[in-house]
Design goal:
Layout lengths: L3 E6 L1 H24 L5 E7 L3 H7 L7 E10 L10 E4 L10 E9 L3 H11 L5 E10 L13 E6 L4 E2 L15 E5 L13
Parallel strand pairs: 2-3, 2-5, 5-6, 6-7
Antiparallel strand pairs: 1-9, 3-4, 8-9
The structure holds inosinic acid and magnesium ion (MG).
Length: 193
């Protein structure tokens, strides 16, 4: 691997922010639950949100079910989303439940736009979106999606680490880093999620 990486958000900052998000989301969901006996379902958008979800749920002392959905984007170039596809099964029993979608990053909005639509169609009791990172898009997003909870607002750079990949690699990096691509590796990306 010849790409250079530059740390953008280190592991300590991530850990404290994720704990904070967990506390805030827990309070909000507890408030929802006070009104009835509905269930909470956390839907982790694989693969990118794997690490974030694993840390976040340990700051959510609530009765909740964790489910997964695999969403892939197929970039026309290395760092540009060209559309989102759900691969495999989406949970179909979300009606009447409090659903929290967890994703790694809000970029073009296509992934979360698609997930929102298919979940809203099931008529959940409530629907929230949590992302670790929210990219600032000067010209707006492809899909007008907002996150109810965002760990960090970042510039419109391609980032890796803490679950986020480039061409399948770097998910195990404990920090979030900016990837500086080299011309020899730019052709390798086929899917990311
Ligand atoms: P979207 O463009 O908002 O649909 O984001 C699509 C997906 O692409 C995200 O869920 C991430 O998995 C991935 N993604 C978007 N931006 C980046 C990035 O900077 N690095 C790594 N993955 C990314
Ligand atoms: Mg993703």
């Amino acid at each position: 691997m010849s790409q250079a990486v530059r740390t953008l958000i280190d592991r300590e900052r991530i850990a404290s922010r994720v704990a904070e998000l967990g506390r805030q989301i827990t309070l909000d969901l507890e408030r929802e639950l006070a009104g009835g006996d509905s269930e909470i379902v956390l839907l982790c958008a694989l693969t990118g949100a794997l690490v974030f979800t694993a840390d976040l749920i340990r700051h959510m002392p609530l009765k909740l079910a964790v489910r997964t959905v695999t969403v892939s984007s197929y970039p026309g170039t290395m760092t540009t989303s060209q559309g989102a596809n759900i691969r495999g099964e989406l949970p179909t029993d979300l009606a009447g439940k409090h659903v929290l979608i967890v994703d790694d990053i809000l970029d073009s909005g296509r992934t979360l736009g698609l997930l929102r639509r298919v979940i809203v169609a099931q008529q959940p009791a409530s629907l929230r979106v949590a992302v670790l990172l929210r990219k600032t898009k000067r010209d707006g997003r492809e899909e007008d999606v907002t996150a109810d909870y965002a760990g960090f607002d970042i510039a419109d750079d391609f980032v890796v680490g803490y679950g986020l990949d480039y061409d399948g690699y770097f998910r195990n990096l404990p920090d979030v880093a900016v990837l500086t691509p080299t011309p020899t590796t730019a052709a390798g990306a086929e899917s990311r999620g």
